[in-house]
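Here is the promised in-class demo. Please do not try to memorize the tokens; focus on the logic of going from shape to residues.
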């Protein structure tokens, strides 16, 4: 009895999961959640459609803007330089999202992202403007980089705060589905265009068409985002206290550990992501000698498999937790990257596809729960700031430079296993970050303390930590309704 009394007196300090099942939500709540998922995921799809197109037509961009032996490497270097502006976007847009709200920033980022991407499709080439042409290309990519400094962080935070606590992994996986769908769409569009017009047609300017398609996609995403409301977790916090007027100061005085954990993990996340989604087509064609069409279709097949797997894996993390899946992925990259790349270099398409599949599987395991994991590292009042700043600093240094670093090192040394070594190093760094994460599956994420910070106290009180009392009480309660 004494233990029960102690339990009751302490429960008021411990937020409990909402336990909402999507199937039992009211129709209005379902529509709101679907709108949140659609608006977040489509914006992310637009972002990755651009990255995918830039990668798949990199040879033609190089011919148009950087004629010469180092054209492809300079094309990827331009992409890498644009990532310098992502941390600036995070520094500006992250704190703005904590001050004025997530939805306003998401509307701004989709506008800033769509316009320069579309403009790339109409920029004059080097033969017309000379050295000024690549400067304009770089300016477009810089604006795009600035906007994406708030895009992914805003979409992930919005998704995480809109989702039911016990379904955050599943709902958040749709943001990554947008990433994969955007990249797959880019591969399909570019490949079909290449089949229709051929290499000569692409050289003549047809490579520009996919960039122009960003305009209608961005317009649809903007329309969806204009209809979004602020998520309840953010609204509840701001109704209980004024919106954080100095999120930047609070973030760096109270949450340095969380920023460093996030940055270490994002090294692995983005080296893997940009390796699979943007560099691999170039690696398959330029290094391994496959035709562009063959390389693109191999990637489309992998992306289709990743699209099928991402949501079931996200749902799995709601049941067993985020950390077991993240640990498996990180250790897999450390152990299997070199064998996977050796398979890619072997004779026979089956072995090559197996090598690609190993890397893709490890990557989709991470992506399945990343948008549920990373926002939950921070409390509500600094969540957007912490996510956007930490994520984009790490992305600028390691993620956005992945293609350029691999291209330059392989060209300079001839060591075509360098991408595998790069992934192993990223896996070690990412594993360190994962080790220090709190397990946040099923935890409420509103409030002014980092979710999962009360785990030791909860364990002593008898709570099962994955989803708190995840002991069929909720199922029994629903059966009695």
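The designed amino acids, position by position:
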């Amino acid at each position: 009895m004494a233990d029960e009394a102690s339990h009751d007196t302490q429960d008021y300090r411990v937020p409990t999961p909402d336990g909402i099942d999507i199937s039992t939500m009211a129709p209005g709540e379902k529509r709101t959640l679907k709108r949140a998922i659609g608006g977040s995921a489509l914006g992310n799809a637009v972002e990755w459609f651009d990255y995918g197109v830039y990668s798949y037509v990199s040879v033609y961009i190089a011919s148009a803007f950087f004629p010469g032996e180092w054209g492809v490497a300079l094309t990827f270097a331009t992409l890498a330089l644009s990532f310098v502006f992502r941390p600036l976007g995070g520094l500006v847009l992250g704190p703005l999202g904590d001050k004025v709200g997530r939805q306003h920033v998401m509307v701004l980022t989709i506008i800033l992202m769509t316009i320069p991407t579309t403009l790339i499709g109409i920029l004059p080439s080097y033969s017309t403007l000379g050295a000024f042409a690549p400067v304009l290309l770089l300016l477009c990519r810089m604006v795009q980089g600035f906007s994406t400094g708030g895009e992914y962080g805003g979409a992930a935070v919005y998704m995480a705060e809109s989702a039911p606590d016990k379904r955050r992994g599943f709902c958040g996986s749709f943001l990554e589905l947008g990433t994969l769908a955007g990249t797959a769409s880019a591969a399909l569009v570019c490949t079909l265009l290449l089949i229709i017009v051929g290499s000569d047609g692409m050289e003549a300017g047809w490579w520009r068409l996919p960039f122009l398609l960003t305009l209608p996609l961005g317009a649809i995403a903007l329309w969806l985002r204009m209809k979004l409301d602020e998520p309840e977790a953010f609204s509840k916090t701001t109704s209980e206290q004024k919106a954080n007027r100095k999120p930047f100061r609070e973030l760096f005085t109270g949450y340095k550990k969380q920023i460093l954990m996030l940055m270490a993990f994002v090294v692995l996340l983005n080296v893997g992501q940009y390796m699979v989604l943007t560099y691999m087509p170039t690696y398959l064609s330029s290094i391994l000698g496959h035709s562009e069409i063959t390389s693109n279709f191999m990637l489309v097949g992998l992306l289709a498999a990743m699209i099928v797997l991402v949501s079931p894996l996200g749902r799995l993390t709601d049941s067993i937790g985020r950390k077991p899946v993240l640990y498996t992925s990180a250790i897999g990259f450390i152990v299997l990257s070199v064998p996977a790349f050796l398979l890619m270099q072997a004779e026979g398409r089956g072995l090559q596809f197996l090598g690609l599949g190993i890397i893709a599987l490890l990557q989709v395991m991470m992506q399945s729960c990343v948008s549920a994991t990373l926002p939950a590292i921070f409390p509500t009042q600094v969540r957007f700031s912490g996510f956007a700043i930490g994520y984009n600093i790490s992305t600028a240094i390691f993620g956005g430079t992945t293609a350029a670093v691999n291209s330059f090192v392989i060209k300079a040394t001839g060591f075509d296993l360098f991408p595998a070594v790069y992934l192993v190093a990223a896996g070690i760094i990412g594993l360190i970050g994962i080790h220090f994460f709190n397990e946040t599956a099923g935890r409420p994420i509103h409030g002014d303390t980092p979710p999962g910070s009360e785990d030791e106290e909860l364990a002593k009180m008898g709570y099962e930590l994955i989803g708190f009392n995840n002991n069929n009480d909720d199922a029994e309660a629903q059966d009695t309704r």
